[in-house]
Amino acid sequence: MNTNTFQIYQLIGQIISFNNNAAALKFRLESFNKWEQLVYHSSKHLLLPTIYKRLQEKALLGLLPADLIQYLEEIHGINHNRNLQILKQIKTIHQILADAHITHVFVKGAAILIKGLKNQSLERMVGDIDVLVERSSLHTAFKLLQDNGYTESIGFDYEVKNYRHLDRQISKTGIAAVELHDELIRHPNQHLVNVGDLLAKLVMCNQFPIPNDYYMGLHCVMAFQVNDLGYYYKHISLKTLSDSLVLQIPQQPELLNNLQYHKQGRLFIAWAQFLSGDYHSVKLEFRQAFQLSLMLIKLKHSYLGKVDYRLKWSVEFIKQRLKLWFTNRSYRRHILKDKLNTLQN
User: Fold this and answer.
1) Mean pLDDT on 191-210
2) Looking at residue 63, what is its pLDDT?
3) In this model, does residue 301 exceed pLDDT 50?
4) What is the pLDDT of residue 184?
């Protein structure tokens, strides 16, 4: 990642910020000309609709080239209409589970869409509909969705142990797949988000069950840092930063204190503070500041980032495959079967 990209990350952080920074942002955009790079990285982090919405809210959209404004407007419109369809699915799924008296909450992107219903803030790009269900009702819920049109599923070719959700379920009439969870954070870090307490403290928002603000924010951070290996690779997710601002994490002292207690949360706060003034109130510890410095070196020198990523990816791949081989009989059978089929062919 070169210096230009390093600067573009900072610019995106300014754009998606909810701080009153319109004057400073206007000054920066007036001399900016790396529009293709801005589009590339915003798209990579699934933020094009958000970029459009924030610039529109700050009355700065007119500073962009006319063809780019038109492009962003089209992307925003397509995504908005898609989200309206997803919300219809969410309503149907909620009704199915509620009628069966199954305790559930919508999480991740689905929950953010639900929160945005009141003021039509539907710019979040959403892939799957993630639903947290009590463990005792998980397979009942899966069967109910099957009986209601979610007849296709995508999973693994071997038995998976300690996984946080069942196979992804797909309906021929639904625009998004559904993932039913009984845990939210990958093994062995499930304790970072207490699902029992989350379910006990769920709130009804626009007639749908979602986590309270504390748990929505906590899950937002830990899902990227742990599930997506953001902490392991020392990566930055601008989408996670955007979600954290929408969920008002900087305005939640209890949550900020909890994040500062865990290494994954501390690293998130470090790079979030660098990219967004919204996190300026948190005082970084020495280790946080040191880790941030190392991350910024990788951001400025792309070859270092690529080498670091490839080495860590190789180590993680080998570690996970060895763990599966020695602890999962189903995985061993799957591998041996594939090898046998290859030899026979």
Assistant:
1) 95
2) 95
3) yes
4) 95
3-state SS string for the chain: CCHHHHHHHHHHHHHHCCCCCHHHHHHHHHCCCCHHHHHHHHHHCCCHHHHHHHHHHCCCHHHCCHHHHHHHHHHHHHHHHHHHHHHHHHHHHHHHHHHCCCCEEEEHHHHHHHHHCCCCCCCCCCCCEEEEECHHHHHHHHHHHHHCCCCEEECCCCCCCCCCECCEEECCCCCCCEEEECCCCCCCCHHHCCHHHHHHCCEEECCEEECCHHHHHHHHHHHHHHHCCHHHHCCCCHHHHHHHHHCCHHHCHHHHHHHHHCHHHHHHHHHHHHHCHHHCCCCCCHHHHHHHHHHHHHHHCHHHHHHHHHHHHHHHHHHHHHHHHHHCHHHHHHHHHHHHHHHHC
